[in-house]
Write a structure and sequence with these properties.
Blueprint (H helix, E strand, L loop, with lengths): L12 E5 L4 H11 L3 E6 L18 H6 L3 E5 L5 H12 L3 E4 L3 H6 L4 H7 L4 E6 L14 H7 L2 H9 L9 H24 L3 E6 H13 L15 H4 L6 E2 L4 E4 L4 H10 L3 H4 L14 H11 L5 H11 L3 E3 L10 H5 L3 E6 L3 E6 L23 H7 L5
Parallel strand pairs: 1-2, 1-4, 2-3, 4-5, 5-6
Antiparallel strand pairs: 7-8, 8-9, 10-11
Length: 385
């Protein structure tokens, strides 16, 4: 595995002073695109706590959010090591942190402190809530942010119970938001020479994400209808069981429905008045979804794939995660390649999902052991230890 960067961010240095998923995943995305990411960490990072195979701290989640980074272990409460961290930040284009404002001020690492030393620094501060709100500084976790953003309300109305989405969507959406705001701030700096502080509140980010479709009738003032995106609020809006598996089948117009029911051997359903009009966009969602679920077991998943492709019906087999590595699409896209990790042996690494024609990203380094690059980085930057 080569350490030579080829991506569009080659030459950009990022200091990752964050923990858990939101900040580290954002920094990894920048690393995948060629940035030199230096992770300043201590043993306290909870992403390193949990089940491991060979080495304490090398958890599955850690391996998935900390590749393409060099790890520098520094105790920021120690004056000498804190000064070493500050000297590292002096060399950086970007700092990503999710530390609380009070802790950053005590360490001399708030934006004003660091901008005085490095005026071109892009300072990305990810928090649970806006710094000017009465919740500033409060702890935030993915579940609390799902609640604060209205996602739990959407789930409760659609499913009849206030469940959390079974993914850390708040963290990951915020990671993507951090990445694009950092890139925008770098463009501004390249044009003007001016760095800046960018605040990324996790709750605000997920509220904005959720309301794109779910604000619905409340877009208008006064409201023209309820909140909640109609199709998604239908309890029957879900994948279906085929003869031998599961699939997502989403007829989106009357012809789609007619072709689907004919293929299932149920031509009488193709003549149902609910299939042939504006009702597809209205109150008959649940009944139509039940009809699809009833007919889907008529064919195998492979047969439905062929039928739906022939008739341009939106359809996809359900990818079962335990077998993802065997899926042809996943395999051909190098989305789950097996590689050799220096300490953990054979592991699967998630591929870079975007393709650049001129400056492709790359996986140059697998997730490091805590502090494994400390001496190399400090020596390279002529920082005495």
């Amino acid at each position: 595995m080569t350490h030579t960067a080829t991506g569009p961010l080659d030459g950009v240095r990022v200091i990752d002073l964050s923990t858990v998923v939101m900040g580290p995943y954002a920094a990894q995305i920048l690393g995948d695109l060629g940035a030199d990411v230096i992770k300043i960490e201590s043993p306290a990072d909870t992403v390193r706590v949990g089940k491991f195979r060979t080495t304490p701290g090398m958890t599955a989640l850690n391996l998935n959010v900390n590749r393409n980074k060099r790890s520098v272990a520094l105790n920021l409460k120690d004056e000498e090591e804190r000064e070493q961290a500050l000297k590292l930040i002096d060399t950086a284009d970007v700092l990503i942190t999710n530390m609380r404002p009070g802790a950053l001020s005590r360490l001399g690492m708030n934006y004003a402190d660091l901008a005085a030393r490095n005026p071109g620094l892009v300072y990305a501060h990810a928090q649970g809530f806006r710094g000017d709100s009465d919740r500033a500084g409060h702890a935030a976790y993915d579940e609390t942010v799902q609640a604060s953003s209205g996602l739990v309300d959407v789930a409760n109305r659609a499913l009849g119970k206030p469940v959390y989405l079974p993914t850390i969507i708040g963290d990951k959406v915020s990671s993507l938001t951090i990445a694009y705001t950092v890139l925008a701030a770098l463009v501004h700096r390249d044009r003007t020479g001016e760095g800046q502080r960018v605040e990324i509140p996790m709750t605000d980010t997920l509220i904005a994400f959720n309301l794109v479709e779910h604000l619905a009738g409340h877009v208008f003032e006064p409201a023209e209808g309820p909140t909640g995106f109609g199709p998604s609020m239908n309890p029957g809006h879900q994948a279906v069981h085929t003869k031998d598996g599961m699939a997502c089948v989403i007829p989106y117009n009357p012809q789609n429905f007619r072709d689907f029911f004919h293929a299932a051997g149920r031509p009488e359903l193709a003549e149902d008045p609910r299939v042939n009009g504006d009702a597809i966009d209205g109150a008959d969602h649940e009944a139509l979804a039940a009809m699809i679920a009833e007919c889907a077991p008529a064919l195998t998943t492979a047969e439905w794939t062929e039928v739906c492709a022939k008739h341009s019906i939106p359809m996809a087999p359900v990818l079962e995660l335990d077998h993802a590595q065997d899926d042809e699409y996943v395999r051909d896209g190098h989305l789950l390649d097996v590689v050799e990790h220096p300490s953990e042996g054979s592991i699967r690494t998630i591929g870079i999902p975007v393709k650049f024609s001129a400056t492709p990203g790359s996986v140059r380094r697998l997730a490091p052991l805590p502090g494994q690059d400390t001496e190399e980085v400090l020596r390279e930057l002529a920082i005495t230890r």
